[in-house]
Amino acid sequence: MRGTDIEYWVGFSRIPGIGKARLTALKTYFGGLENAWKAQLSELLNAGLDEKIADGFVSGRAKISLESEMEQIERYNIKVVTCESEEYPRLLKEISDYPTVIYIRGLAETLNATSVAVVGTRRATAYGRQVAEELVVNLALNNVAIVSGLAKGIDTIAHRAALEARGTTISVFASGLDIVYPPENAKLARDIMERGALVSEYPLGTKPKAENFPRRNRILSGLSRGVLVVESGDNSGALITANFALEQNREVFAVPGSINSPMSRGTNRLIQEGAKLVRNYQDVLEELDLSLVAQQISVRPLTPLNGIESIIIKFIGEEPVHIDDICRNTGLNASDVISNLAVMELNGLVKHTGGMSYVLARRLV
How many CA atoms lie less than 13 Å away from 253 in the CB half-sphere? Predict the structure, then answer.
């Protein structure tokens, strides 16, 4: 990346008060970012910056070593993509306040995958956990990338479920990519890089300040075709993401819940205000015109059962059986049962009847 103007994009990303509009104006006035970065105070004022912003830039610039910045970026194996690059995510470029620079760790190409953001409360209930796992596994198996924010609760559940289904998942940070928040998700972040990407608009060393999270949420929705809210209280950050989605002309999906559950107040209100009620993953696929993918998968030839599937199918018959009963009877953990049932359903072997229960759809011959 050295020897290009990437270092100047990185430098400007560290300067408060110089966003997309001001950066574009400076680039145009000086004929390039290098000239703008090296400009004197008087030249910056002549370029149209007000005195406070110009003073802040000059003083901030003096504290930044572009060489050190690029060394750190190489150390963390980070890809820097500017809004002028052909590699910049197509959907993200559609929103009005897209970042001028994004930092990426992992597989940068996944940012252009067909994606759905899955968000929700940090205090997920057992119901929310089960629903999130089931929906995400099935979406991932239908080649839908899962975007979320690595937070505790629904975000973490969504990332892990996508990985268990061997799907693609993307995490958007509210900090620099060298700071994993919460820290206990450090291993999860490493796993995500292997099958997806970590992305942030914030330069390295940026701490996860409270004010960064709402702004981060516009990128969650901006990268996605739609936003799926699984559980949300009255004032959840998930609702902020849903509002961004509406502003960005994205679809908003919500999972209904008990009227007595505080964790379903936000999702129920979203449905009342017009969000798409989600009963199963097909509702999401159909709304996004992705249902043909599921149809193509459902008619594929029957494949041999793997070891876990062979165990599970022994305990499924013509009467609905709950996942908890399957786990109890087989001794398997819930994540293995859920991910294998999802594959079996796509192969037409079992059918989900609602409430995390399954019946046999067709018998092996």
Answer: 25
